[in-house]
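User: Fold this, then the next.

Assistant: Folding the first:
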Amino acid sequence: MARPQVSIHGCEDGALISRQLALPAIFKAPIRPDVVHFVHSNIAKNHRQAYAVSKEAGHQTSAESWGTGRAVARIPRVRGGGTHRAGQGAYGNMCRSGRMFAPTWLLVATWDVSVSGPRPPSKLSERSTHPTLCQET
């Protein structure tokens, strides 16, 4: 079976050149759905927007628990006086301006994914490394 012909147009020394060459045998290979799925799913990951909270979020105040005996919850309370913030709960996930439960900064995520990577080889790629096997008779 003859391979399809490819037209090549170019210019050498100011003269227009047009040639016909046989399409390489590698282009007649079947499309591998697993490779197509791998490439498209990893390229889609490069459109994600990173999200996380600061590592210091919710721990930027000086606070200490008042202990028992004051008829208040044993949550750490902001120190000081003369401001509305003094005496308010701090650090806890149930407190206003406290840290969140299970902060997302613990996720050390790689947001950009490199698409090129090791994949199981196909028989066709092994054939393409041997030029004598690619030639059709």
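Now the next one, as you asked:
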Amino acid sequence: MKRNPEVIETLEMVKKLRQIGRHILDFKHKELNEAGHEDENDIVHMVIKANEDEKEQSSITQEFELDDIMTIFLVIDNMAKTLASFFVEVIRHQHVYDKIAQEVRNADISSLHAMDTSLIYTEMAILECLRLHPTLMRGIRVITKETKIKEFTMHKSMIFFGQLVLHQHPDYWENPKDFIPERF
């Protein structure tokens, strides 16, 4: 199967990112092995220390540590962007702020399940924020067999699609650029 140049470039970038990550991990392992050079506020040190016990009981490798660290940084980055977008939208829309504030004041916080079921409007606002400000600008899907949609035939391959375009397309959303949590 012929690979799309964009896919090849993405895979090369991931390889490069992992190579940089391995270099950082090597450096952080050396730091930890030096007497008295442990930083309890260093997230990479924490991941290494957390995996030390596991290494004795299983086959944890540097690649697993690297996966842990990359996941943490990717999640933190996406979470920060999502929260920033959410707060901006809520601040811009006083009626949404008022509803969320009231819902939070009255929320049942006795358990995670109770909290989840008592913050319905807040969840709607988060989903609407993700629709307007997706964390990933494009999605990727793998076509495992030849597929025909209307007059288009798609062969086994990988396709990219713009989430922002889909999330704000007027054929699918009424007033697509407006922040309206009630749509959910």
